[in-house]
Amino acid sequence: MPPSLPPSPSLRRAYDFLVEQRFFAVALPSAAACTLLAGRFVGSGSRTLSFMVWNLFLAWIPYGCSLVAVAAHRSAHPRRNVAVAVAGAAWLAFLPNAPYLTTDLFRLRDLSAAPIFYDVALLAMFAWGGCILGVASLHAVRRVIEDIAGPAVAHAAALFFIGLSGLGVYLGRVVRLNSWDLALRPRHVLAHAAGAMSTREGVAYTLLFAGFFFVCYVAMAAPAPAPDRAVRM
Q1: pLDDT band at 229 (very low <50, low <70, confident <90, very high)
Q2: Which of 3, 47, 78, 207 matches a 20 to 30 Å C-alpha distance to 174?
Q3: Banded model confidence at residue 232, pLDDT cuts 50, 70, 90
């Protein structure tokens, strides 16, 4: 058999970039969630949860924006800072869509077409897929900020973004706003955000989901490099 041709340098760089950005790790839960959903369609004949595909797509948008921000930051283009800023703004606007998937677990109260254990696994997989997408994108953006402004600013910014994500989950689930409203009705969104922070429910909801997102963010942080020599007891 003739020897196989080596992959082109551009394809190798793209593959290494995706591995670095945890693409295959974040894609696996999404693929599993869609597979479970397809199994539910076939087994129950019900299309009740078909909208979950759209919710998952929205959770992929911030991850995609983070890839664009990282690639633009590493490029030599003279307007790379503009590209990073635009991608970063879009990333922040859509970031709450990632942890938002966890709130779909409440639908377990109303589902009956499939066994409850199946729907628990299905919705949990969608929730996990959203969380891992959000956290991976947050780490990517944090590293860009760290390169630009240093680690202290980057960690402070990450905490700020996590807090905004908690607020965004509240505005999406309770007030029923979406990311497009930031561009179409920014004053309307800001008014509701200020109103949410003046109520117990809004503050509690925001802190709860921001705290949940923070735990995921810390748990999925890159491991510390191994020491050169193992510590002997």
Answers
A1: very low
A2: 47
A3: very low
